[in-house]
What we know:
Radius of gyration: 24 Å
Strand content: under 5%
Structural class: mainly alpha
Helix content: 40-55%
Number of helices: 5
Strand order of the largest sheet: 1-2
Largest sheet: 2 strands, antiparallel
Amino acid sequence: MVRGVLRMYRTYNMIDKNPVIDKVRTLVQDEGLIKKLGIVHEISGVSTTTLDNWFNGKTRSPQHATIAAVITSLGYKEEFVKDHAIDVEKERKSGRAWLEKRQEEAKANKPTKKSNGHSKPNTRRKWTGKSWEK
């Protein structure tokens, strides 16, 4: 995945930062460690820089393993809870339509030149022993 690009999903959208960052911040605050990130680092192995970037910096979507390291070190467990029943065939149809729309948008917005404004270099040249020929 390219850094600096947020991936869009049909069933999950975040505006600025992944909401899990706020949940972890709340857990760290509840443990009285928000001003003591060095202690969180000691017990989780996650660097204080990473934690600071989650809470105050530019990190928008942290890795799941890193989140899990912090929450389990604080004595919490992650749970998945069934919220509602789904119609799989209906969801497949909706998902397919959503993907097709995104592909059409991407095709319509595809730049004709490289992003730096230069044309693609001509790479079909041959060395003659004295100079390059096209």
